[in-house]
Amino acid sequence: MPNGARGALSREAVLAAAAGLVKEHGPDALTMRGLAAELGTAVTSIYWHVGGREALLDALVERTMAELGEIRPSGHTPEQRVVGVACALRRQLRDHPHLVALVHERGLTERMFLPAQRVLVREAHAAGLRGTRAAEFVRAVQFQVVGHVLVERNRERAPAQHPGEEELWGAETAGDDPALARALARPVDTERLFRTAVRALVRSLLAPADRSPARPSDPVG
């Protein structure tokens, strides 16, 4: 291969093209020949920059985890900052579903979430939470984000429903709350719903211990 062709590429350009293919078509669509065609170069050039397919996948996973780790909280209060972190994490998971799946397949899911967990730990400590309460806070926010994204994706991929919500919540099921029926008949605003749910969760978890809801194991006086 001519040195000029080799020099026209960079490792980052190869990884960016590979990430694009995975994002658009899924991990199975990532082949060395397909990637070389996407870049307009020879397969040997891809090998020179990133190695074989397994090495490419490893590098792609590292790149994805580095991108997912770049979450910086903003806001004036712990609640605002944590809600912002949760929204940023949700966007990342929704924007990179195939790359996240690739990370999961390679057994690195917990490592992928570690940077976001560290940000949440700092916010928990800043809000005065320590120990078990801080750990529950971090995990509750993480599970809320992941669970919401999974429900969103399942709804998006589900076949058309017959009857749909707009039919199920017609006049005959309105009862004494027609406004509720009309609202449930409309398409779900998942962004608004997520913010509402995570804000309520965070507010509850940040409440002082003497005002937080009792757990099943807590004594009730």
Folded structure, characterized:
The model is unreliable at 1-7 (pLDDT under 50). The relative contact order is 0.09. This protein is mainly alpha-helical and 221 residues long. The chain has 2 domains: 3-63, Homeodomain-like (Arc Repressor Mutant, subunit A, Orthogonal Bundle), CATH 1.10.10; 69-205, Tetracycline Repressor, domain 2 (Orthogonal Bundle), CATH 1.10.357. The protein has 12 helices and no strands. Helix 6 runs antiparallel to helix 8. It has helices spanning 3-7, 11-25, 32-39, 43-50, 53-68, 78-95, 97-105, 109-126, 131-157, 165-168, 178-185, 190-205. Helices cover 69% and strands 0% of the residues.
State the total count of DSSP E strands: 0
CATH architecture of the largest domain: Orthogonal Bundle
Order of helices and strands: HHHHHHHHHHHH
Strand count, sense and barrel status of the largest sheet are:
none
Poorly predicted tracts of residues? 1-7
Tertiary shape = flat
How are the secondary structure elements laid out?
Elements lengths: L2 H5 L3 H15 L6 H8 L3 H8 L2 H16 L9 H18 L1 H9 L3 H18 L4 H27 L7 H4 L9 H8 L4 H16 L16
Helix pairs in contact: 3-4, 5-7, 5-8, 6-8, 6-9, 6-12, 8-9, 9-12
Properties at a glance:
Arc Repressor Mutant, subunit A, mainly alpha, 221 residues, disordered N terminus, Tetracycline Repressor, domain 2, 2 domains, 69% helix
Quick description:
This protein is mostly helical and 221 residues long.
